[in-house]
Amino acid sequence: MDPTSVDIISLPVVEIELSRLSSVSSPRTSGEDPEHIETLLSTEGKFPPILVHRPTMRVVDGLHRLKVARLRGDTKIVARLVDGTESDAFVLAVEANIRHGLPLSLADRKRAAVHIIGTYPQWSDRRVASATGISASTVADLRRRAGDSGTEARVGRDGRIRPADGSGRRRLAAELIRSDPGLSLRYVAKQVGISPETVRDVRGRLERGESPVPDGSLRLRAESQPLHRVEPGFGRAVGRDRLAMLERLKADPALRLSETGRTLLRMLTMHSIDEQEWEKILHRVPPHLYSVIAEFAREHARLWTGFADRLENWVATLAAE
To answer: Of the N and C termini of the chain, which has fewer Cβ atoms inside 10 Å?
Structure first.
């Protein structure tokens, strides 16, 4: 079983006797949080099902809900059962708790990452990072500290096997981009075996005159030329389905009837123009402002990404409450 691909919501819900459940092996080293337990005790309504490892009957996610059930004098609790090994269950526990209403501390997430590196050494840094809620660079640092020499290849979040050292592939991507700056991210990614986002990073480094490999020291030679061509069709990301969804959002009273909602709708509409409009704007940017406006665009992209991440975290938190 691949613990990172388990669809927990699709697992059937069952009732389990509390006496059958074990609460050991939690990634939360600080134990139960009395304040969180008090909050749950004062909460009306039913709690979401806890997650239980079927072979050992250990609680993977829901220790506080289990404690509240015991304090209330309940004899049973609703749960979803998951199979797999104990190592699989540990990964699920970490993933569930970093998205929980009471997230794991940074120290717990780092300890969990070290544990997962030991049990799944073939996983890429990004895959471990995704499971533990820390950055890939932090995972790489923890791997080095643990004395893990690594494997020649690692399995990424998408299940594809890639070399552990991606510097060679980054350089190949850079060569392709230099030879034809108009190549799409996906085309270059497919040719050299890296992700489109990595290709985007390589392209950005070349535009800034940096080395395609993020070693922090190498710079390109002065004769390297900056890239001004843009990936063809970059404005096609907003398709018909997304535009139709935008129209439904505009009609939603929860957004349409509040000032904040209308502001959000204006922002979404502003960024949903078609390819021709993007091209028109692109070609009318004064050359002496290319770098300045590019930096503004990247900063706005980072803000939108952070906005999206927080919304997704809140969705996961609501599902767990």
So the answer is: N
Neighbours of 6 (CB within 10 A): 18
Q: Name every residue whose Cβ is closer than 8 Å to that of residue 263 and which is 6 or more positions away in sequence.
A: none
Q: Which residues pair with 173 in a beta bridge?
A: none
**Cα(228)–Cα(182) distance, integer angstroms:** 9
What end-to-end distance do the CA atoms of the chain give, in Å? 26
CA distances for 274 relative to 270, 271, 277, angstroms:
10, 9, 6
Distance CA 187, CA 303 (A): 27
Q: Which residue carries 């079927």 as its tokens? A: 54
Token duo for residue 210: 């940096």
For residue 173 the two structure tokens come to 């991507």
Tell me if residue 122 falls in helix, strand or coil: coil
Q: pTM of this prediction?
A: 0.45
Per the CB < 8 A criterion, the answer to whether 162 and 195 are in contact is no
Could you give the residue ranges of the DSSP H alpha helices within the chain? 34-41, 63-71, 86-98, 106-119, 125-132, 136-145, 167-179, 185-192, 196-207, 240-251, 253-256, 259-270, 275-283, 290-320
Place of tokens 């906005």: 307
Q: What is the pLDDT of residue 293?
A: 82
| Other CB atoms within 10 A of residue 186 CB | 12
Distance CA 285, CA 205 (A): 21
Q: What's the rounded Cα separation, in Å, for the pair 82 and 11?
A: 8
Token match 């190592």: residue? Answer: 87
